[in-house]
């Protein structure tokens, strides 16, 4: 059985990665003052942050229309028997549910949907693994079993400069945003039960990043090999410097650099930085 792998734009895989593994991507959109743009297709990340910086209107995000999924699934049915769809957390977007709905509307191909319960680079970990296994001839059941195993070690923590972005976008409670603003803390945020929550509240960004590193160190001591990603919101120099420092400290961890694109950047804000990791399986 031939299996196609589909994800959405919030995995922020490079065009080279998508081409290498033959991964199909459905874009989410960001709505700005001058119109709506499909991220990774009609607007670059740097263009987005430049526009937002000079905008008086807070951007909004939109999930893909169900019709886009239906059209893609029908196209894939010409060459594949099954599709594995891996999407950002259903707790912060309806994209996953849209893929489920579309899969029920197409008879020519079997669609399996996987809720990553997360987003960005850690979502991409699942996508790349699924594509590698599909290329090697693994069944959908085998792939899903491995993805569920990966969930046990997949971690992501991020620090934002301004909680107001998450609060305005409805991805964090007003109470949590208020506490962060009043105390001038830099909370470490994470995904828990599919939604974004404050994991710990730290007084400064420097201390917050140090605490995230401590959490990585704990897992680096537990697992033989780890894949990790520094993720930045238009602060690449800061991200690269942190990645360099981490690489020198943890030789058993393979680091790379990624970014918070327009859709996730809408909710986190420019200057946010995070770290994700997963045990290599």
Automatic annotation (TrEMBL):
Presence of keyword Manganese: no
PROSITE patterns xrefs: DEGV (PS51482)
Key words, A-Z: Lipid-binding
Tagged with keyword Membrane: no
An MF annotation (GO) of this entry: lipid binding
Source species, domain of life: Bacteria
Entries under InterPro entries matching the protein: DegV, DegV_C, DegV_domain_contain
PANTHER family: DEGV DOMAIN-CONTAINING PROTEIN DR_1986-RELATED, FATTY ACID-BINDING PROTEIN TM_1468
Record-given protein name: DegV family protein
Naturally occurring in which organism (per UniProt): Lysinibacillus antri
């Amino acid at each position: 059985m031939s299996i196609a792998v589909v994800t959405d734009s919030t995995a922020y895989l490079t065009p080279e990665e998508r081409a290498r593994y033959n991964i199909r991507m459905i874009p989410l959109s960001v709505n700005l003052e001058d119109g709506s743009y499909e991220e990774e297709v009609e607007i670059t990340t740097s263009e987005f942050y430049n526009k937002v910086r000079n905008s008086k209107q807070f951007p909004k995000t939109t999930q893909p229309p169900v019709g886009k999924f239906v059209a893609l699934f029908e196209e894939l049915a010409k060459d594949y028997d099954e599709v594995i769809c891996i999407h950002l957390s259903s707790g912060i977007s309806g994209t996953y549910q849209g893929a489920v709905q579309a899969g029920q509307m197409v008879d020519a191909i079997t669609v399996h949907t996987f809720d990553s319960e997360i987003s960005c680079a850690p979502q991409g970990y699942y996508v790349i693994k699924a594509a590698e296994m599909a290329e090697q001839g693994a069944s959908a059941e085998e792939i899903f079993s491995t993805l569920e195993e990966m969930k046990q070690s997949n971690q992501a923590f991020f620090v934002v400069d301004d909680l107001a972005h998450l609060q305005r976008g409805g991805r964090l409670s007003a109470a949590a945003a208020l506490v962060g603003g009043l105390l001038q803390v830099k909370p470490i945020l994470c995904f828990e039960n599919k939604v974004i929550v404050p994991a710990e509240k730290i007084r400064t960004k420097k201390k917050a990043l140090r605490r995230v590193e401590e959490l990585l160190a704990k897992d680096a001591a537990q697992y033989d090999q780890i894949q990790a990603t520094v993720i930045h919101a238009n602060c690449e120099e800061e991200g690269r410097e942190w990645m360099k420092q981490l690489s020198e400290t943890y030789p058993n961890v393979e680091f790379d650099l990624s970014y918070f694109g327009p859709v996730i950047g809408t909710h986190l804000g420019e200057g946010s930085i995070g770290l994700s990791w997963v045990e290599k399986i």
